[in-house]
Specification:
Distance between the termini: 40 Å
Radius of gyration: 14 Å
Strand content: over 45%
Number of helices: 0
Number of strands: 11
Structural class: mainly beta
Helix content: under 10%
Order of helices and strands: EEEEEEEEEEE
Shape: elongated
Low-confidence stretches: none
Largest sheet: 7 strands, mixed
Mean pLDDT: 96
Amino acid sequence: QVQLVESGGGLVQAGGSLRLSCAASGSIFSINAMGWYRQAPGKQRELVALITSNDSTNYADSVKGRFTISRDSAKKTVYLKMNSLKPEDTAVYYCNLRYNRYGRTYESWGQGTQVTVSS
């Protein structure tokens, strides 16, 4: 089974930085994309950042210029460097993996890591 282990969340003051990590393990033939989503209380889950196997990236407009997504293919790990954090960034951040195995595409989610930005 595929598992995603997230780390790096915590409490930080506005303007501070955090770095989230998500390590994938299990039977993964190839990774299509890894990304980060977040969900704040009372809001829908939204895409924060995504990186594909071709190193193409997508960011939510609200985080462009502040967040950077990167990956380490050898470690099957994706990172999210978050700078200039705002209280609006407070949410549970979920790691997402899309991968191929035996000719089929699958999706896996992490359990989430809390990011709290104080004002």
